[in-house]
Amino acid sequence: MSPDSPRPPALRRFALGLWFLGLGVLGLLRYGMKAARDADIASDSVAWLWLAGSVAVCVIGIIDIARVHKHSRDHPDN
User: Fold this and answer.
1) Residue 76 · residue 25 · CB < 8 Å
2) Fewer Cβ in 10 A, N or C end of the chain?
3) CA–CA gap between residue 28 and residue 60 (Å, rounded)
4) Domain span at residue 59?
């Protein structure tokens, strides 16, 4: 990218991280819906795997957004 060209918008720079974060939030919503529907969520191993996977995907999205933000702050011309 040349120095005189404008920076891409934040949505484009953070697209992958936002995508992962959105998938994780949808998974957390799915877990919450199952927890609200079923009274015995503590013994449901599938629900716990869904929760763990959703949290992991959210963390990956947050890490990616933080990495891109740090890179764009350290290198303002990119």
Assistant:
1) no
2) N
3) 14
4) 12-74
* C-alpha–C-alpha distance, residues 78 and 64, integer Å: 16
pTM of the model: 0.77
Considering its fold, how many domains does the chain have in total? 1
Residues 24 and 55: beta-carbon distance below 8 Å: yes
- Quote the CA–CA distance of 48 and 60 in Å, as a whole number: 18
Handedness of CA 55, 59, 61, 65 (dihedral sign): positive
Could you tell me the two tokens for 24? 């994780």
Number of C-beta neighbours around residue 4 at 10 A: 6
How high is the mean pLDDT of the chain?
A: 84
18 inside domain: yes
Q: pLDDT by residue (tens digit) across 51-73? A: 999 999 999 999 999 998 888 77
